[in-house]
Structures are given as structure tokens and as C-alpha cells.
Design a protein that fits this description.
The protein is α/β, with parallel strands linked by helices. Helix content is 36%, strand content 24%. A hairpin with a 2-residue loop joins β11 (236-248) and β12. Mean pLDDT is 96; it is low at 369-374.
């Protein structure tokens, strides 16, 4: 029997990714309804994708349609309420990034999961391309040796008109700037490869855009393995690129792309002591791109059918939220931050600006952390 799906949010990401990705799953799923605050948008999406019902109220949709799965394609501010409502109605949830606005919100959603489901997971499609999957296997096997040095760059360009959308780059509605809304994609893929992080030192500034939040952030992260990584997130970079590079004992592995990669975007460079035949076996044989949501949607549905917790949920999905919170805390306090500091007693657990959005904006706009140290 097909999994009954409802899609909440009918804007661009829904029409470009969610609805086409669900369609690509064929008869494994049936999209029974869509919802949006705009009746015009909901009705047009339903007509475009052949969906029988549309709504402007999520509670009404859940009561009438009883979906098995709800996908969330809404602005970040709307994720928590819709996810909790769906879980309480017995539906699994697959939500756009960032998962929530804070660690507290993330944990509140988790509290509504069942012991054996339903579960909430989050869309970080770059984990699911074939090259990243292959690299993850090689790391687990130890084939490349220890990871030593890494960098993770999201260098994008957004002109002032981009920020005219009311919810963008505001603490209360997006949670943060490019650290939360843009670089989080590459950061999640990095963490899925290198595992647990232990401490972070970060700086942030608002250099060129009229925003509450940062438009640039830098960080140095230490991993439990001992590896060190630099992270750069920017919305001011005319030559846009997304890059993750990891130097292992036996190889450098690097991907450079923009909004999605295929195998051709990756380079696998062996260290001088590695035999050519060994290096030749590293690259993936399949070529599954990360530019669509289809691979993650497929794996999520697989997990539903097996009754298993999906990837990028629970502690696995939370890790990148912890790193983002650690980066904001470090940048706003001028201190290195250990991961285990981010407990419910910490103000940065409850919100990325640490409970003081006005002060956070002032410090980031000033380009200095001297006031935080005073």
C-alpha cells in the first residue's frame, strides 16, 4: 500500500524539489494533499502536480487526510509547530533545513516522537550523493587513514533584494544568517564524514547587507579524531562555490560545486606512498547526484517501510544544530566553546543569539567582540 503524503508549503522549494521527488518514487507514495497559507499557491500547486486536495490550515489537513508522512517546505519559523502537529497526528516528518531555530526547539520536536516512530528527519541532500556515500564507507573502513586537516566553505552571493523577503536574516524567523540558512548544508555533510566535534572558535560580522544577522562567519573546529577544520560561510562572494576538502594520511579528497554535485565534481588525490591500483579503487562506481532530494526521500521511505529511525534525525540530525549554536556562542562571547557546554542551562541552547537578539545584532554589526568581553 502506498504511503500517504501531505506537503506543507507550496513555494519554490516544494515545486522544484519536494513534489517532483515524491513523484519520482512512483507508486510507493501517494501525495494526497498540499497546504499553504496562500490559498492561491496551494490550489495552483495541487493543479500542477495532480493532487486531489489542498488546504490553508495544517490542523484541518491532518484531521481530514490522516497522512502517513508530512514533508515541510516552509520558512524555518514554521517548522516546529507543523512538525509537532504532524507527529502528534501519527505522521512521520521530513523537513527542510535548518531543522529548527534552536536546540531547544529541536529537542521539543524529538519529545513528540514515538519510541518506534513516527520520527522527524531533516533534508540535507548532500549527504546522499554517491561520492559522499563512498567516502563515508572508506573512512569507516580506515582505507584513507586518519583525517588530519579539513576545510568547509560555502561562498555564495546574495544581493540586497534577496533580503527583502520578510523572514530572511532575522533571528526570530530564520535563526541566523548564512551559518544557519546556507552553510549548514556543507557543514552537515562535513559532520557526516568526520563525526563528532569537540570545540569551536568562531568570528562573525555583518559587512555589506542590511540584516539583523551575520553575512559572513568563520570558524575553526576540532574533532574527536583530532582533525582540525576551518569553516567559512559568506553571502558576499561573487564567484560562488561550495567546497569541502579533507586531507587524510593517505589522500586528499575534495568536492567543489555550487548547489549540487556529481562524481565529476570530486577529486581523489593519493599521497605519494599510495600504490596507483589502491587509489583507483577509491572512487564510486555509481553516479548519484546531490542536486535533487530524490536519494534522501528514497532512503527516508525505505526507513518508514522498515520501521527504523531514518538518517538525519535524532542525534544524527542534531549535531549540525549544536555546531551552529557553538559558532554563534563563540562569535558573540569571544570565547572558544566546548560542545558539552550547550546544555539546557546555556542561553545559546534556547536561541542562536543567546537570548539577546538586539545585543547580538549590535556586536555582529560592530565587527568586534570587545563589548562581549567587557
Amino acid at each position: 500500500m502506498a504511503i500517504r503524503v501531505a506537503v506543507i508549503g507550496t513555494g519554490a522549494i516544494s515545486r522544484v524539489q519536494h513534489l517532483p521527488s515524491l513523484r519520482a518514487l512512483g507508486d510507493r507514495v501517494e501525495v494526497v494533499a498540499v497546504a499553504d497559507l496562500s490559498a492561491e499557491s496551494a490550489a495552483s500547486a495541487a493543479a500542477e502536480f495532480g493532487v486531489a486536495s489542498w488546504y490553508t490550515d495544517v490542523a484541518e489537513l491532518l484531521e481530514r487526510e490522516r497522512p502517513d508522512l508530512v514533508t515541510l517546505a516552509t520558512p524555518p519559523i514554521a517548522h516546529k509547530e507543523a512538525a509537532i502537529a504532524a507527529l502528534d497526528a501519527g505522521a512521520w516528518v521530513l523537513s527542510e533545513k535548518p531543522p529548527t531555530l534552536s536546540l531547544a526547539d529541536y529537542d521539543e520536536i524529538m519529545a513528540h516522537e514515538g519510541e518506534n516512530g513516527p520520527y522527524a528527519a531533516y533534508i540535507f541532500q548532500h549527504r546522499f550523493g554517491s561520492a559522499a556515500e563512498r567516502l563515508r564507507t572508506l573512512i569507516a573502513e580506515g582505507s584513507l587513514g586518519r583525517p588530519l586537516v579539513a576545510k568547509c566553505d560555502t561562498l555564495w552571493y546574495r544581493d540586497p533584494s534577496y533580503f527583502a523577503v520578510p523572514w530572511r536574516a532575522k533571528w526570530a524567523t530564520e535563526g541566523g544568517g548564512p551559518t544557519m540558512g546556507h552553510g549548514i548544508h556543507q557543514m552537515d555533510m562535513l559532520l557526516s564524514l568526520l563525526g563528532e566535534w569537540t570545540d569551536v572558535t568562531a568570528v562573525m560580522s555583518t559587512l555589506a547587507r542590511e540584516t539583523e544577522t551575520e553575512d559572513v562567519s568563520f570558524a575553526v573546529v576540532r574533532f574527536a579524531s583530532g582533525a582540525l577544520c576551518s569553516i567559512t560561510n559568506s553571502l558576499l562572494s561573487p564567484r560562488e562555490t561550495s567546497q569541502v576538502r579533507i586531507d587524510f594520511e593517505h589522500a586528499t579528497v575534495e568536492v567543489e560545486h555550487l548547489y549540487g554535485y556529481g562524481n565529476a565534481h570530486w577529486t581523489w588525490t593519493p599521497a605519494p606512498h599510495v600504490a596507483p591500483e589502491t587509489a583507483a579503487a577509491w572512487a564510486p562506481t555509481d553516479d548519484v547526484p546531490s542536486s535533487t532530494h530524490v536519494p534522501q526521500f528514497k532512503q527516508f521511505v525505505d526507513s518508514m517501510e522498515r520501521g527504523e529511525r531514518p538518517r538525519v534525525s535524532g542525534a544524527d540530525g542534531r549535531r549540525v544544530m549544536e555546531l551552529a549554536a557553538g559558532m554563534y556562542k563563540s562569535a558573540l562571547t569571544g570565547q572558544a566553546v566546548a560542545r558539552d557546554e550547550l546544555s539546557p542551562a546555556d542561553p545559546f541552547y534556547a536561541s542562536m543569539p543567546g537570548g539577546d537578539p538586539v545585543g547580538a545584532t549590535a556586536r555582529i554589526h560592530a565587527g568586534t567582540i570587545r563589548s562581549a568581553r567587557a
